[in-house]
């Protein structure tokens, strides 16, 4: 996403609905260029196009957080993606920055992504990336799954890297955070990775509190 498209997205989310003509005047480009940008942004699930205008998506938790510090999150996602190698299997939890990272990886790397986030899975529907969605108790607001079934699913996979949402603290081979279901989910993911890979290999954990 270039700087003009970021500006367009910010305007759409601020105004909730804005015409192609207004976007063209604000961006200093033609309406044809704006329509091309809107087509791309809609394809990537950032907004919705209607006749002559662009409309912000209905806000859920992830969509609302996505626009907070968007440019910074995008840079962080690009940096995190640079640490991932082709052919790796990556576990990505929920979170707006994690969603950006997932899409960046799916578009530029040959990886398999495992996630508990239905939001992230939907975000990647137009990509060629292999996506595995784990089972569990579905939380409608966050569009993610938690609980014992999720823990069992994670125990069955070998991960090269894990990308977790915020609040994690290291303690031995385990990671902990206040909410029990998510905490246990994270514990199993990391402990499984410890068993599958040598102890001297670096474990990368990226935290996303958003």
TrEMBL record:
**What Gene3D superfamilies does this protein map onto?**
3.40.50.1360, Winged helix-like DNA-binding domain superfamily/Winged helix DNA-binding domain
Q: Which GO terms describe its molecular function?
A: DNA binding; DNA-binding transcription factor activity
Q: Does this UniProt record's set of keywords contain Transcription?
A: yes
- A Pfam family this chain is assigned to: HTH_DeoR
Q: Which residues form the HTH deoR-type domain?
A: 1-56
Q: Note the superkingdom of the native organism.
A: Bacteria
UniProt keywords (A-Z) are: DNA-binding, Transcription, Transcription regulation
Query: Entry's InterPro entries?
Result: Carb_Metab_HTH_regulators (IPR050313), DeoR-like_C (IPR014036), DeoR_HTH (IPR001034), NagB/RpiA_transferase-like (IPR037171), Tscrpt_reg_HTH_DeoR_CS (IPR018356), WH-like_DNA-bd_sf (IPR036388), WH_DNA-bd_sf (IPR036390)
SMART domains in the cross-refs: DeoRC (SM01134), HTH_DEOR (SM00420)
The protein's name: Glycerol-3-phosphate regulon repressor
Give the organism the record lists: Serratia fonticola
Lineage here is: Bacteria, Pseudomonadati, Pseudomonadota, Gammaproteobacteria, Enterobacterales
Q: Source gene?
A: glpR_5
